[in-house]
Automatic annotation (TrEMBL):
GO molecular function: ATP binding; metal ion binding; protein folding chaperone; protein-folding chaperone binding; unfolded protein binding
Official protein name in the record: GroES chaperonin like protein
KW Transit peptide (keyword) present: no
PROSITE patterns listed in its UniProt record: CHAPERONINS_CPN10
GO cellular component, one term: mitochondrion
Keyword annotations from UniProtKB, A to Z: Chaperone
Family statement drawn from the similarity comment of this UniProt entry: Belongs to the GroES chaperonin family.
Organism: Babesia gibsoni
InterPro entries (alphabetical): Chaperonin_GroES (IPR020818), Chaperonin_GroES_sf (IPR037124), Chaprnonin_Cpn10_CS (IPR018369), GroES-like_sf (IPR011032)
Amino acid sequence: MSIAKRFLPLFDRVLVSRIKPEAKTKSGILLPESSNLSSRVAKVLAVGAGRLTAKGDVVPPTLKEGDTVVVPEYGGMELKLDGESYSVFREEDIIGVLKEGAAVPAREAAKQAA
């Protein structure tokens, strides 16, 4: 059973899985973790129903399952299920969505260094 079926975020929360950054350039240079901005890139696995307003109305989420997003380096709630690590963020804390084909900054820098 997938994590998205086992854990459903409430309200405006989003469950993500961080995408593991490449630790080595094509030429074999090892990159330190601190130089890798791509550690903030994640895949959306599940999205709550939306944010509740003061009047009780629900504002639907803008993110959807499968989106690739940039998340803050710190923050969110870490969650471990079946030995895998996940993060839960409020939708408003997610920095943005990476469009298909967009280059991840640290990976591009690594390619140029190679």
